[in-house]
Amino acid sequence: MSARIAVVGTGYWGINHVRAFASLRGAELVAVVEPNEGARAKALALAPRARGLTHLDEALAAHDVDAVVLATPAVLHASQALAALAANKHVLVEKPMALSVADAEAVARAAAASGRVFMVGHLMVHHPVMHKLDALLADGTVGDIYYVYNTRVNLGRLRRDESALWSFGPHDVSMILHLLGALPARVAAQGHGYLQKGVEDVVFMTMEFADGRMAHVQLSWLDPRKERRMTIVGSRRMVEFDDAHPTEKLKIYDKGYDRPPEFSDFAQYLSIRQGDIHIPRIDGAEPLALECGHFVSCIASGATPRSGASEGLAVVRVLAAAQRSLQQGGAPVELSATP
Q: What is the pTM of this model?
């Protein structure tokens, strides 16, 4: 039986959910919730078999809605997710799942108690390149990760209710936490709102992990060119994920320092290895289609989502620590100290 879906919010990103679920096998898009008449009509043109609704409550009360997709402003995510879980619906909520640790914890508790599938829209975790990176880490190709740095910048759409940290940051933080498999011990961030006072359009964030690994993220929608890049430096190889490149999304560099089994002085201890660059073939599937398909698959099987409540909570913990660091002029913040 197909999962019967209602998409809530059809704005800048929600309209893409409408498109994806309208054509997804194993799902039936039965309702679109959008108070704006023009936006609702545009969405229904993509999903002619769905009915238009104006309020979330209508979808939560509907007996033919199994799951809701919350593509609404971030300030509404926590309250709407709690309402949907209380109505016994499966939930896919866009990132971030909440704007405070307390709200994220409340949603995570409700999700655990509900028995419903709860998933956060951490899109990049579902990217085909991330699946390939999982395999490269599992088979030892990369070795132990030393550090990671990400760049997510462009001259883009201004937000008034979210800073670059909370709008762009969930993408990169979710990727880093997924690959490193741990929360950082401390976070430091510096940024500035050049275009809108109090809304940082440029943020530099550094994460330090208890085992010595580090990660750095640069975020901005005030930059001359679009970059979506992750670099992973490992003990055996280095890897670059360039999501802005049309074809060469992933490059594996056989570069690094080799340690010979025996040496007589420090100069012989480390030697630079300059090897080949391998560009593997990557599945060209759309990440959003994979994300939506994964949500429907988890509903059918009862499996735990790749980006579930615990992952969503972890991302909010890091972002909240970074926000506190921003407010303290870049002073490092221990994760245990986030509210």
A: 0.93
